[in-house]
Design brief:
By secondary structure, the protein is mainly α. Helix content is about 65%, strand content about 0%. It contains 29 helices and no strands. Helix 10 packs antiparallel against helix 11, helix 15 packs across helix 16 and helix 28 packs antiparallel against helix 29. The chain starts with about 25 loop residues before the first helix and ends with a helix.
Length: about 525
């Protein structure tokens, strides 16, 4: 038990202290009102704006958490002082320490240390945690509050944790706390997973990967893997947890399951930042069951065609098969799946449905129709050009148009781009702009054109010259890349002068060095 006689002064309470955050509106109130609103504590000077939960997600999945020893010590020292004496200055000291850096960077060391040194301070820690969670207007103190509450709270706190966790910025911390406090944590985590779509969905579903709850497993297969970041993060987890190979055999006629299985297969075969098809122990059974379900349902959505073709390509690839026996693959199972995929792709109905869907106003439906049509030998260039022409600056179809553009059509695309793009405005002078968000749509369209011009030496000089004068670093890099991929005899007559001027005006060291090295290399090759 805590030795009260060791405290330096009278009764301990946070209620009489002046909030160290002043009059800022609690983030908890904002989240309860609308969990999808952007939080107001974002640094307005920050050039890179992270999506909700993205910074913690990237840190946890890719970057590592680094060495936060100094930050950990400052927080622990300040926490010790506040638990010893509840004064305004001690509260301010802790709050300021929490606002510095990312709590995720040291939370794994913080909680065991709190448990070791303050095990008798549970009520005080819980009171502090609830106060920070519900009243703090900055996200890092709120995260600290959630984390500590997960150690010191009770089941009565779970509803509050689910509410704050509905914002992707706090979902990871809320999920861990709920796991610790809830007697029915899987169901509570499931409800939380359904409330979020971005990094929060990823964080929660990862913590449901071993569930034996039938309803949760069914949801993981049909919806749980879908998220606003990348389906690849969760596809293998959900296929495994939901027992996709078994579900497809039992429910081969279920169109919702077939749609979901299509997205799962696409994500796992595409690979990416997480486990993929080669990490899925039941891959062989699942792919064969998926192809069998397509035979049973006889549906010809263009998306299905594209995914079947991806499977066929993967099955015919040469590398990796010596290690795939762990996923159930044998020569016989691979052969069966290859024959199934090839036979499915032969059906003439794919073309009929692809042509129909090329007329769809739904961008996603059109995308898959276009992908299938091109594989089926259907020329979609005119349709794509018309799509882009509807809103050339903001069109999402530029990539497909440039992919479909060939030699006889390049001049028309260049002329169109020069007509619709505000080239003088784009060429306002080099700067360090990232070119993201509202106002930079023309610069994004220019990117697509510059990537296209790689394949057409001597074409689109006006666009390339504009790119070299753009404030967006990415535009300038793409323009330089075009030059690198062209032979010098394809350069316009004033290219050297334009490149030298670009070197003189370039504010970014790396870009300027690349320009200089390129010019020097070309000069040397002429000697």
């Amino acid at each position: 038990m805590f030795n009260w006689m060791n405290r330096k002064s009278g009764p301990w309470s946070l209620e009489t202290l002046a909030p160290p955050w002043g009059s800022g509106r609690p983030l908890y109130e904002i989240v309860v009102e609308n969990p999808h609103l952007a939080l107001p504590d974002e640094d307005p000077a920050a050039r890179l704006k992270w999506a909700a939960g993205a910074l913690d997600g990237v840190m946890g999945h890719h970057l590592g958490r680094g060495d936060a020893t100094d930050k950990l010590k400052r927080v622990l020292d300040a926490l010790r002082a506040l638990l010893d004496r509840s004064t305004d200055s001690n509260f301010r000291r802790l709050y300021d320490a929490l606002c510095e850096g990312q709590v995720l960077g040291y939370v794994d060391q913080l909680l065991p240390e709190i448990d070791r040194t303050h095990s008798s301070d549970g009520p005080r820690l819980a009171a502090l945690a609830r106060l920070l969670l519900t009243r703090a207007p900055r996200r890092e103190p709120v995260k600290f509050g959630i984390a500590v509450l997960g150690m010191t709270g009770s089941a009565t706190d779970v509803d509050m944790l689910r509410q704050i966790g509905a914002c992707d910025d706090f979902t990871l911390f809320a999920a861990v706390a709920i796991r610790n406090l809830s007697p029915r944590y899987e169901r509570d985590l499931w409800e939380l997973a359904k409330a979020v779509e971005g990094w929060g969905r990823i964080q929660v579903v990862e913590r449901l990967s071993h569930t034996e709850d039938y309803e949760i497993r069914a949801w993981l297969l049909r919806e749980g893997f879908r998220n606003a970041v990348m389906n690849e993060y969760l596809a293998c987890i959900c296929a495994r947890a939901g027992r996709l190979h078994e579900a497809l055999r039992v429910s081969a006629k279920d169109p919702v399951l077939l749609d979901a299985a299509t997205d799962l297969m696409l994500a796992m075969i595409s690979g990416g930042p997480a486990e993929d098809i080669d990490d899925y122990e039941d891959a062989a059974e699942a792919i064969e069951a998926y192809l069998d379900a397509l035979w049973v349902q006889q549906t010809f959505k263009p998306k299905f065609f594209v995914v079947i073709d991806r499977i066929r390509e993967w099955l015919t690839s040469e590398e990796g098969w010596d290690k795939r026996s762990k996923c159930g693959w044998t020569l016989e199972s691979r052969g069966r799946c290859l024959v199934l995929s090839q036979e499915l792709l032969k059906n003439e109905k794919w073309k009929i449905d692809a042509v129909v869907d090329l007329g769809s106003p739904d961008g996603d439906v059109f995308h898959w129709a276009n992908s299938a049509a091109r594989k089926l030998g259907i020329d979609t260039w005119d349709v794509l050009f018309a799509k882009v022409a509807e809103d050339p600056i903001r069109s999402t179809f530029w990539y497909e148009l440039t992919e479909a553009t060939d030699g006889p059509r390049i001049d028309k695309v260049i002329s169109f781009a020069e007509h619709v793009l505000p080239l003088d405005e784009i060429a306002s002078g080099p700067s360090d702009e990232m070119g993201l968000g509202v106002g930079f749509e023309p610069h994004g369209t220019l990117d697509w054109m510059l990537q296209l011009l790689d394949r057409f030496p001597g074409k689109g000089w006006n666009l390339i010259r504009t790119g070299l004068r753009s404030p967006v670093v990415r535009n300038r890099n793409w323009s330089l890349r075009v030059f690198k991929n062209w032979r010098k005899e394809d350069w316009p007559s004033d290219a050297n002068d334009v490149l030298r001027a670009a070197v003189e005006a370039e504010p970014e060291d790396d870009v300027r060095k690349n320009l200089e090295a390129f010019l020097e290399g070309r000069s040397d090759s002429d000697q």
